[in-house]
Amino acid sequence: MSTAPANGGAPAGAAPFSPLRERLREAAEEFAGAPGAAAGILAGMVDDVDRALREPVEVFPVAHHSPAAALAMARRLREKRPKAVFVELCEDLVPLLDELRNCKLPVALQAFASEPEGLPSAGGPLSVVAPVTEASAEYQAIAYALETPGVELVAVDRSVDLVFQWDAAREAGQGPDAGQDSGDGAAEAAGLHGGAVGVEIGDLRPRFADLEEHLLHRGRVRHWSEWWDQYVEQPLARADHDTYRQVMVAVGGLFRRLSPRDARLAVDEDRERHMWRRIREHLSATGTDPADTVFVCGAFHAASPVEEASSTAGDGGFTIPPPTGTGWLYGLIPSSNSAIEAQFSLAQGAVSVASATWAKHVSARSVRPFRLKGQKGAGAAGKRSAVPAAAGAAAGPTAPDPGRLSGFLSAPPELDPLDEAELRTWCVDLVRLARRNGYASSTADAIAVYETAVLLAGMRDRARPTPYDFQDAAVTCIEKDTVPGRRDVRRLCEILLGGDRVGSVGYHSMPPLAKDVADRLEPLGVDLGKRTVQRILVDLRAEPELEPASLLLWRLRRLLGAPVRPIAGACALGDRSVQESWDVSLGRDQRTLIELGYEGVTVEQVLEQRLRRAAWDPGATAASVLEAAEDALVLLDSPALVADLGRRAVEVLASERTADGAPEVLRRFRALVAHFRGTGAGLPAWCKEFVKAGYAHYCTLLPRAFAEEEAGVGQVAAMLSFLFSLESTALALGCDRDQLELAVAQSHPEDAAKVALLWAGRHRLGALAREELRARCAELLANPLVVPSYPRYLSGFAQALGPVPELAPFVVEAVSEAFARLPDRVLLPWLPVLVETLRKDAGTMMPALVREAGRTFPGKPGALDAWTPPWAREQAPAADGDAAAPSGGGGPAAELLDRHRASCDAVAAVLGADGAWSGPDAGAGGAASPAAGGAASLVERHPAAAAAVAALLEGRRVRT
Amino acid sequence: MTDQMLRAPAEVQYAEELAWLESVDDGPKPFTWRLSPKMVRAFVLGSEPGDGLDREISQKWFGDRTFVERAVVTLASDRGLLLIGDPGTGKSWLAELLSAAICGDSTLVVQGTAGTTEDHIKYSWNVSMVIAKGQSREALIPSPIMTAMERGAVGRFEELTRSTSDVQDALISILSEKYVSIPELNEDNTVFAKPGFAVIATANSRDKGVNDLSSALKRRFNFVKIPVVSNRRSEAEIVRFRTTELLRRHDIALEVPPSLLDVLLQSFTDLRAASAAASSDDERLESALSTAEQIGVLEDAILHGHFFGDSTLRAGTLAGSLVGSLARRTPEDLAILNKFWHGVVEPRGADEGEGGPWQEFLEGGKQAIEALS
Prior knowledge:
Chain A: This is DUF5682 family protein. Chain A is an alpha/beta fold. Chain A contains 44 helices and 13 strands.
């Protein structure tokens, strides 16, 4: 066949369709008033049919989720037995098809790229899904080709890479075509496919909204799926092969001619060039006779006017662009009817209705569908397909009969004969289902639904109620003003008509990682095939052999999140529970696990990669790297990785220019140090490095952090905490204390809170005595101009409890002093400010403060009268000369004993100790203390040794 | 005849159309219906080329086709029809159109109020005649529902949920047994409903909880929920349709400029969005912002412009009428409107530039808010 002209003008040899063409022309003239565009379009439909029929390769037009197409496909394949089947499917997805037999449909073929390279789309992991349902023509073709020896299946559509190369360019010009009719469940349903781009075979839908709206309005239907079902699907279900083919091409041609010439159409034309080029390549390479082949493609493409879209045409200068450097990974993920509906903006329930129709036809019409051997979850279709093909299959290949096409186009659609029994069953079942869902429905409702459905169908010119009529009738009769349960009647109808079937990917089709996970979780009794949430109880004390499986769950928790949820139990630094309880829903979230499989072969490998990636991310902070190191330590137990990450943490810390992450760094590093010390392994080298680097780093940053407004009190306090708490380690590793002293000396904060913090720091370094600190606070309180900022000082002191915990008594004193000394007129308005400041800035330190206050103040109100604050007592001795001051040992214990001397004496008497209360100067090192006396007598007894020591010390002093 | 009525019922207003439809209707008619279900649909929703009618039938009710189909089918079945929805969604209008098309009489109406009694649903007595002649069928005053039963017509019950439960319950036996017995009479004491009798009730979803329907009554009604029209295009059509009718009624020759209609529709869309986003009732206008309310605002503005203005509709007048209609509570509603005017209308006016309708709308609204505050 030579290339036919694209538009208008009857090609030579179009005689069979001449009468139809003439009638359409007349009709167009009648409607439009004159032969014009309408006539061109209508006549063009016939040309399309004519052209498609003359193509030596049998073009088999299909529409997505069309049981009629699937039926016609199955019939045709049985009849023709082609040697090669070309399918409109991304060519690189073909290797996956054989894996379909291990899965329960619907599943989706997926191509996944975590790091796109050279593609115009905006980064992020890219994913393409092509869902496969049982009630589809493509499944029939796939099953036929894979199950029949000697038949080749050739996917001819562009590769996944080109999907993004071409479509991204198209989408740059227009927004995404989001579906309008996505219902409540759509978001939830779409989750099954993730953020994937959907590709499917036979997308047939008007390409501009007005046309679709017009068709829906005129067709008296609500949405596109219903229109298709009523006007194409149902009449075609009983049509013979030729009528089916002609009608589908005609419909495809009509939509094609009515679609706007935009970038999307240009992509479609390029795809057609691609597909036909692949077909020609295959034909010439294998020498297959074109008559022995079938090309399964969308009706839209079957009516292609593109010149190169023919097995006999040339390439016409079309070149297939080379793939980008993106590495694509392929796999199968579970899909579901509702996910497909959401992905392709179909009406809710459309795919379920399609599969119900398919099942019905298969069981009723003696069509023997093809099925992959070993296909799991035999649907209704599979089970009921036992009826042998008899009368229908006997007909041999028939010559195209153009008369049928004109009959189809002129007569109203011929519908299925009434199927009363089916409708009755639906009504009864629905009422039962509604009752289970809280509706007060009864048999009377079943009768009303039946009656209403029949009446509605009559009103809508349908011989028998369609599922959509049934749904409307059910809503009318059963739905009242409120929905009693979770599901409304519309949803119940969908469930009744087959419901949302969710597919799953079989063990053998899963990536190695998922298989490995399934194997390793087996001891716990986790079944990845179950779609429920499984409660797993682990008792590591009773069954220590489960430890690896439990650890795997923790790793999965870290990688996947929600599908693996610990209910009880912990796995953190120094916190490993012996009993755990888990909620595992890996079966339901199979996709996430399968996508994890694209990243590596085992969970450990993926986790290591993720941790490394996080640590070497340009945006990584010291805190985030420490977190990764902690995860590595807890979950992977790989010292080498921890050391790597630790070294990276040192690098990152040294290059940080702000103190923003200081509190987090401090918290994490302290925990790590405690862990290493606690496990007896000692600090690893990287930790020592970190201490050294941190000491130097924070010393350097300290003066600036004190001065800058951006750095908060919390951050500075955390820096000081790091410096003070790890000081001994740092000094032991060769750091210089001078550095810290200098840094503190260079700090000149302006913010009151930071000033207080600095004072506390200087106190810790011994540069500021407590008396002086006390005097400064007294000064602040005495100055009415400064009093309003006193809460800021207090918040600084409270923060200082972190780095300088021994300051707690003083902070209590400072707060108490404020309450004691400030007059009410100042104090009362000031109180809310104080509360607010403390809550905001010193939240974490409050417990320590309150504990200290509890220790300082008497426990009962009655004791308050006789109570003298400790700080007042410290100053008192000089005044009254009382020897009651606490002994040099100091501290709360000594104070307590001192306060209750009588009891102490009594206890001492019982124990047989006769000691005396020491005076105020009788501290541990004082001359009056028994220890000092003992030491003196010892020196007296061995003067030679003492002299030698003295000489030695003398000598050293001389040398230094 | 329509000239002598302020507002003619649908069967009078469209008498000619109904008669024509009846003459060409060859479809199967349930009971004693005047029109077949398909023709009822065509009457309410307007004709389509596919209906094969020679003349065009105008659309009278704007909304989803399914609602009308479900309503018609319900009337052909054994159950009553309950139209439920927000105020101003066209429930009563649909009920009127349906009864006009089915039995040619939409005036058999019982208005549900707190004062509605069982007598209003069943029958009452002509007291003087009872005294003079004793109780007889002559002295009986049938309710509109009873009349509908006797004639095999459609009886309407407006605002069903406003009437008390005992009154509602009187409907149960009428809907299930389809007769009313009159125990006061010794003979001829049962009124049986003729074929074709049906009940259309309307209920306001905002009144939910005032007098909840019993489940027995619920079971005897099919509920059809009428949503607020949110489709801009159909809303514009409704407003245009109703306003034209109004102008004709008042003999006003006044053109509603499309730009002003746009301003009105846009303001309502914005106000609805604001209401939907509000978190408490205080931040929400009391009005349901229905299409009926839009028509009310436009009607008000047109009449104002016609009688007090220069016989043209101005944006300022429209704004004043909008504020006047929607500000029901002070200060809450006024505060919301004030916020709307400054936050939404003002930027629109600024975007549009001098001389546009939004500018004038802005000024008019500000003045109206000021006058009310």
